[in-house]
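Pipeline run #58 for the internal structure catalog. This entry was flagged by the ingest filter as a single-chain record with no existing model, so it goes straight to prediction. Upstream metadata was stripped on purpose; only the residue string is passed forward. Reviewer on rotation: M.T. Logging verbosity set to normal.
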Amino acid sequence: MSRLDIAGDARRTIEVIKSGGIAIVPNDTGYACCGTSMDPLQKIYDTKRRGGHKRNAMAADLQTQRDLHTLSPSAQEMVDALVLDHDLPIGVVGSFRADHPLMRKLDADALKASTAVGTIATLVNAGAFHAELCRLSREEVVPLFGSSANLTGTGTRFSVEDIPDELKQIADITIDYGLRRYHIYRRAGTLINFNTMEVIRIGACYELISGVLKRWFGVELPADPGVDSLPSGHLNEFALKNVQ
């Protein structure tokens, strides 16, 4: 019998990413491919056959999200409640500080690939490994960007065995923590623009997130049509197709 070496695995992962490598990492909402600069991100993008309407997301803990995003106090309170009071994973989209230390690490191409119309997406509170890796990212100023470890349009992967071989072959390190917690949703994490309260993607824990926002903040999100009707969860997947 053995336990996970979360601290050691996160340290090994951040060192690979610092050196320009690609990591496959476990989040509670599925496995992701990530890197820190345009070269690895472009390699991930090309291997996934990712469309121009897609953007990279940033892995962040709550401290980074608070420092990075410029949300209204009421919107930030919603994020804090979801994470701290209800322990839910959430993809937070919002306006951001261009002068944040992590953002200053990005070149123009990486910035363009990871932001849209003045906003950036961060995945927050996605498990113990995610928390430790994000702590290292924040403390050592190593931006973590990426996307699901899948081929575009084929659905989130919740176990390493299900990740396409093409992606495993480009990864310099793979952290295999088995089946991920929210596999029952068959979608990636829920993604909300907290500037506008627009749901970008219906995903993991959506009914719980919706319940929190309605009961404690009076915000009513759209109904989920169901994973069979909307497998990707995206309510307007091609909204950014023509955004430069």
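catalog note: The chain has one domain: 6-217.
catalog note: The domain at 6-217 is CATH 3.90.870.10 (DHBP synthase).
status: ready for reviewer M.T.
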